[in-house]
Predict the 3D structure of the following.
Amino acid sequence: MPEAKPRNIVESFFTSVGNILESPVIWVREKIVEPNQKQYPWYHQKFRRVPTIDQCYEDDIVCQFEADAQYRRDKQVDSEVLTILRERFEDCALYEAPDHLEKCTPLLKQYEDATTNWFIKYGDLGAYHNAKTAFMKQKHRMVWERRHGPVGCGMQGKVAE
C-alpha cells in the first residue's frame, strides 16, 4: 500500500526525520540480523544425535560424556512427556466429572503405558546414574528375559540349554 502524501510541512518534516532514523535500523535487520539467525521450525533447539554409550570406545572420554549428555536430555524429554500425559488425564477427569472413569480411560491407559516404559528405562537406577548404568540395566533385563521370559510373568522354570 503506497504511503499517503503528507498534508502539510510539519507532517512532511516528521515523516522525513522518521525515515532517516528508521531506515538504518531496517537495513541492519534485513541485511545482517535475519540472514544470520538460526531458523528452527520448532521452539526448542534440536541437538544432533550422538553415538550411544555402547558405540563408544572404553577410552573415549568425549564420546562417553556426549552419550551421558544425550541420555540426560532424553530422560528430561521423557519425563516431560509423562507430565503432559498426566496433566491431560487430570484435565479430562476434571472436565468429565461424574463420567470420567468411562470417558478418560484411553488417556489413563496411555499414561500408564508411558509410565511403565519410563520405569523400565529409568527406574531403580538410584540418584547418581548415567548412560552406562542405564545400558547395563537394559542388558541385564534382556538376559533375564532370554532366560526366564518377560519380566512380570513369573519364572517359567529352567530353560533347556
Summary: The mean pLDDT is 87. The first helix runs from residue 9 to 36. The chain has two domains: 1-37, 53-137.
